[in-house]
Structure to design on (473 residues):
């Protein structure tokens, strides 16, 4: 009897009661607030371009290793890509974490235009917040799984070069999402929304013309201008726009047009994007762009070659998952800003014009809707590999456009960090629902199978090219 009594006492000592803060997923996210702010600020300061995000990726990996995640780095032949995982069994739920900045724009966190001298990039799409928020959510999920003993694995996918580099496409092509059950995605925005949002398919390419240099005044007959080739191509593509469907978007920038007016340029380059809601339409449009390049070269006596840089499939939203996320977003307490943050936001709002939305919109949740956006994202390829659910939260002042100096400022301010925490809470609540609701999992997977179709075979818009690790150099 004495022996059994000792065993009972020992068991009682081991079975320490689980504390409420260990189980409550919202409290788990709130416990990560300092980490969210610190990591977001550091990545904002780094402002590293696509495939060059060595410090940003390394910071996230260091934080995850300290929390016991196993890490695979350099996946899909991308040095800054990684997959971090914690847990055992299933379901396997992944979170996406972006961290690349945009070239050609920068700003301090001041609420008026204030470029930072010598800085040539900025987080105008808030990917510093994206990476930090997903990191905090992944750690909060890990803590909840451990505290509750729930079977399952949480993954954080470190996904570089979303801005024109299609990092996730190479990761999807390498099969890194094939054994995941679900993926949760979010993005900084000027509003809170869990709408079913379909993006456009996109393919880009750099067209490089080569001619013959000569003195533009002294011997013009001996020159063949590569810039003429670029301009002729652009003229033909602009005429082509009249004969494309309504959803088509074509845009370009001349990345090299010569160096001096009195030298016939022997090299010129133009960078094209082609977008459409249907990936097959992008595939059909692309040969017409190539034909324009060939014709331009023939007509100007130059030569041309081209390189596909990136390509994204449209996103595949699932209503069952988006409605679930909409409910989680609405269950959260509204974002609360301090007086100083509201004064800062009011100054930003003045720069957005007289019709800018009221600041109170940041506390509201947009009505659920099924939408087609006109941007593109490599999340599209992820969503075609695994059922994916997305959310947007108000990290920027209402009315702020992505890729603007106002977005850079908010992404480096406490205003943006609070919206990031809001996203982390929604993601964690969605993950808990997926871990604990087998009926939802079954419904979402059935919807996913139907949306892709019985004969679906994944095909990237990149072909078999390797990641363009130098496309931002």
């Amino acid at each position: 009897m004495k022996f059994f009594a000792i065993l009972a006492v020992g068991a009682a000592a081991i079975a320490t009661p689980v504390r409420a803060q260990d189980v409550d997923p919202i409290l788990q996210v709130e416990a990560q607030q300092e980490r969210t702010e610190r990591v977001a600020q550091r990545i904002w300061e780094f402002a590293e371009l696509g495939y060059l995000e060595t410090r940003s990726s390394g910071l996230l990996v260091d934080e995850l290793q300290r929390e016991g995640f196993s890490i695979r780095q350099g996946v899909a032949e991308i040095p800054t890509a990684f997959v971090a995982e914690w847990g055992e069994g299933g379901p396997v739920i992944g979170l996406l974490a972006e961290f690349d900045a945009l070239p050609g724009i920068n700003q301090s966190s001041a609420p008026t235009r204030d470029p930072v001298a010598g800085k040539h990039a900025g987080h105008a799409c808030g990917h510093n917040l994206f990476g930090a928020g997903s990191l905090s959510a992944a750690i909060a999920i890990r803590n909840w799984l451990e505290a509750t003993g729930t079977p399952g694995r949480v993954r954080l996918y470190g996904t570089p070069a979303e801005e024109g580099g299609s990092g996730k496409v190479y990761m999807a092509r390498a099969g890194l999402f094939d054994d995941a059950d679900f993926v949760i995605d979010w993005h900084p925005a000027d509003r809170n929304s869990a709408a079913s949002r379909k993006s456009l398919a996109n393919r880009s390419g750099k067209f490089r013309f080569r001619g013959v240099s000569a003195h533009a005044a002294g011997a013009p007959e001996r020159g063949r201008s590569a810039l003429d080739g670029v301009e002729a191509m652009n003229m033909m593509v602009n005429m082509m726009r009249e004969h494309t469907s309504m959803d088509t978007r074509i845009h370009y920038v001349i990345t090299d047009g010569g160096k001096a007016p009195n030298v016939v340029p022997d090299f010129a380059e133009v960078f094209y994007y082609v977008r459409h809601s249907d990936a097959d339409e992008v595939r059909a449009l692309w040969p017409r762009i190539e034909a324009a390049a060939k014709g331009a070269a023939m007509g100007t006596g130059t030569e041309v070659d081209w390189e596909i840089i990136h390509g994204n499939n449209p996103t595949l939203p699932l209503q069952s998952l988006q409605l679930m996320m909409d409910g989680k977003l609405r269950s959260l307490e509204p974002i609360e800003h301090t007086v100083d943050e509201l004064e800062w936001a009011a100054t930003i709002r003045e720069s957005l014009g007289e019709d800018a939305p009221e600041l109170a919109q940041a506390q509201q949740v947009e009505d659920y809707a099924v939408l087609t956006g006109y941007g593109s994202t490599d999340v599209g390829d992820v969503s075609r590999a695994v059922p994916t659910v997305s959310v947007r939260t108000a990290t920027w002042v209402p009315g702020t456009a992505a890729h603007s100096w106002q977005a850079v400022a908010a992404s480096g301010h406490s205003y943006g960090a609070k919206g990031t925490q809001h996203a982390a809470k929604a993601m964690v609540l969605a993950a808990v629902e997926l871990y604990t609701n087998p009926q939802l999992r079954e419904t979402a997977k059935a919807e996913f199978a139907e949306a892709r179709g019985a004969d679906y075979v994944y095909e990237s818009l990149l072909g078999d090219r390797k990641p363009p690790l130098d496309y931002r150099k």
